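Translate sequence into structure tokens.
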Amino acid sequence: MEEITAPPRFRQGSGRLCLDYLRTLRYRGTPRATEELADPAALMAWVRQCGPAVEGPRSAPGPGPADVLAARALREAAYTLVTAAVAAGAAVAPAPAVRARLNRAAAADVPVPHLAPDGAVRHRAEDPVRAVLALVARDALDLVASPALLPRVHACASPTCGALFLDHSRPGTRRWCSMDTCGNQSKKSSFRSAGRR
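Result follows.
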């Protein structure tokens, strides 16, 4: 019997871990804006789906409500930093609170790789959630300090999406965060509009 797996809960494929994390406020800037980091279970699910597979001590407590609030605040700080750098085309000096939040998160211990007895490489961290969020913060800092990449960070052309993505296409003219979702929806909409004429 074939095992049925659930579809991924969170959107990925933006081209950078930090940009995937920004997508946890889905449909940002639209009336349909939806908070995907709604509770500790959702935060843990994002870490498991989008970060490296991280093992923690069996006795380590999972994230709590305060961790969720801190994770959302980190996301908004990263969003502020990335969008300001993209608009300026270069790294910018963010507000002290934004800088402090990102620096604090980036300073946390990151997952450490180790070789398991079966030969597989796994990652360990005392606090898997904090460790993966440190990777997110470091990725955001690296992205805004990369002048060659900033011009390739685009907002999805779909007026109902709000996601940012890193355009890896050769000409750098990609319009949608995903051709499978936003791109196809736009083409269907255009086709229906043309059919009504």
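Note: The first helix runs from residue 17 to 22.
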